[in-house]
Amino acid sequence: IEDIDRLDGDSFETFTALLFSKQGYMSQVTEKRRGDGGIDLIAIANGSGLLVQCKSSQSSSIGWDAVKEVVGGAMRYQSKMPSVKFKKVAITNQRFNASAVEQAAFNHVELLDRAHIEQLLQRYRITDYELDEFLMRSV
Description:
The protein is 47% helix and 24% strand. It is built from six helices and seven strands. The protein has helices spanning 2-5, 9-22, 65-80, 98-107, 114-123, 128-138; strands at residues 26-29, 41-45, 48-55, 61-62, 85-92, 95-96, 109-112. The protein has a five-stranded mixed sheet, sandwiched between helices. A two-stranded parallel ribbon has the order 4-6. Helix 2 packs across helix 6 and helix 3 (65-80) runs parallel beside helix 4 (98-107). The longest helix is centred in the middle third of the chain and has 16 residues, at 65-80. The chain is globular, with a radius of gyration of 14 Å.
């Protein structure tokens, strides 16, 4: 997890896409130059999907900006892909504060924090080489 803490924002998004791909999703980081609309990556498997906002930080807790952004961008992607049933997700390498947890509950956003990433990394090993390779394909 300490390696994840050293990633910049774009690399954290790519790491998250790789982590979801290890779980069977076809995942893709959205294009920033076109405007991501609050969605950093899309992950789809078997007709269902995830719309994900990623927040990498050195600070120990994250506010509810990630919740606002994923809620704000969800309708755009849902209307582009009406046959996919999307869940809204916010992920961070830290922890979400109480305000983020409360707003996520109101807005039906699943929060994945540092502890969740640690659990996933125990199940789905990611090497530096894999991440570098995934980064190169994403460019």
